Amino acid sequence: MYLCLAKYMGWGRAFALAHRARICTPQPSGPTLHPLISAQLIPSAMRDKISLASGYGNFAVPAVAAEAAIRSISSGTLPVSDAAGLPALREALAQGYQRPITATQVVVTPGAKSALFALFKTLLRPQEEVLLPTPNWFGFGELITRAGGRVCPLPLSSESNYALTPAQLEAALTPQTRILLLSNPNNPTGRVYTRQEMQALLDVTRRFPELYVVSDEIYHLITFGAEPVPSLLDFEDPHERHVVVNGYSKSLALIGWGVGYLVAPAAVAAACAAWQFATSVAVPAPNQLAALAATQAASAIAAELLAQLQPTRARMLAELAALPHVPHGQPEGTYYAFPDFRAYLTPHLPAAAAAAELVASFQEAGVQVVDGSSCGPPGFVRLSYAVPEETLREAMHRIALVLQARQLASDLGC
């Protein structure tokens, strides 16, 4: 933002005004801007908020899904679904995997978060551990603790592209580990674990017959690699301990329709359905019928979403590549980038506080982002490119100005 001031006032006047306002003086909560300077640093257009923080894309509802719901509502009396979901939807979902799955293993839930919570309440005994490779989705932790479990983070490194090796996994497992929780593709990093990587990890887990492996696959169709994302259910399950959680709000664009599901061994699925019957209601039939139509048209819907995302993904990666000192990788799935802004953190602050201060500076410039500290490592930021391209261009311009200003302040010894 100092750069904005220089742009409008000239470098000499900008430096003088900065000095008079003491904007370089660290405050107890980190560097702040004098109100006089703040008004001049940020043009009025930049006070309009742009969100790159949302977990939802700017996707239209697939026509086939909307039409199916309208037909259901127009038919008169709506059917009341079993707690586990409409048989036709459960059967269609069961047929979507390489290995034999039956409809009795599928439970349709009011969103994927409900599927996760039902699963954790069913599987976890008090204070049992969930091993969670990080970075990962920020919502897992509260679901696990509310279900009575304990989160055990397993930090992975950006320098190895967040690889999880069999040796790392085996060293992290303890007698108290009840669940290994994976995400493929990963939110926030966009990392996709290959079939070979998954098989190597499962060669370890099969030696722990009481361990459940849960895979969150809600972004499974949003992938830009040559190969499809492998599902956990495509692999042998010798101890009947593999569970997949998925939903319709990401890969199939049913945003706000509240349809998720889990696929589990039959006994686990029945227990989750019983939990849902006792504590909630079945997903309304029109929503399930919309989901059924989306399932049947999944390939076409996903292809349309990928075509919409390709230009903004390219724009995001190009903008990040132009930023000095910002490693960012090549996300293979989801619609997020997870760049490393640690070079721009305020050195005298603790890492988490410095990360929060950086995120606040983006917000002051009118760009909302997800602080990577909520997903694992401070100094990283999750950015969504599931927005219109012009919106993304403007947001990245503002981010670049903030980083340039912070670099200028650092160079001046502020």
From TrEMBL:
Family annotation (InterPro entries): Aminotransferase_I/II_large, AspAT/PAT-like, PyrdxlP-dep_Trfase, PyrdxlP-dep_Trfase_major, PyrdxlP-dep_Trfase_small
Xref: Gene3D superfamilies: Aspartate Aminotransferase, domain 1, Type I PLP-dependent aspartate aminotransferase-like (Major domain)
Keyword terms: Aminotransferase, Pyridoxal phosphate, Transferase
A single GO BP: amino acid metabolic process
Keyword Transferase found: yes
Cofactor(s) needed for function: pyridoxal 5'-phosphate
Domain Aminotransferase class I/classII large: 48-399
GO molecular function per UniProt: pyridoxal phosphate binding; transaminase activity
Domain of life: Bacteria
Family named by the database record: Belongs to the class-I pyridoxal-phosphate-dependent aminotransferase family.
Entries under PANTHER family matching the protein: ASPARTATE AMINOTRANSFERASE (PTHR46383:SF1)
Record-given protein name: Pyridoxal phosphate-dependent aminotransferase
Species whose genome carries this gene: Hymenobacter fodinae
UniProt lineage: Bacteria, Pseudomonadati, Bacteroidota, Cytophagia, Cytophagales
